[in-house]
Amino acid sequence: MANPKRRHSKMRKNQRRAHDHLTGAADSRCPNCHEQKLPHHACPHCGFYKGRQVIQTKS
What are the sequence ranges of the domains in the chain? Predict the structure, then answer.
């Protein structure tokens, strides 16, 4: 097995990990109530998905 001969510097380690950060969740607008929701999910505010009611809401 190969073993490293020298220690990697902090700069080299941090440059390698520069692209490992998390990205925020994508959001879209509900065409019915115009609230923010996750794409490909039913709207938690009005319960509509693809133009029809799929979840009963309190309001």
Answer: 27-59
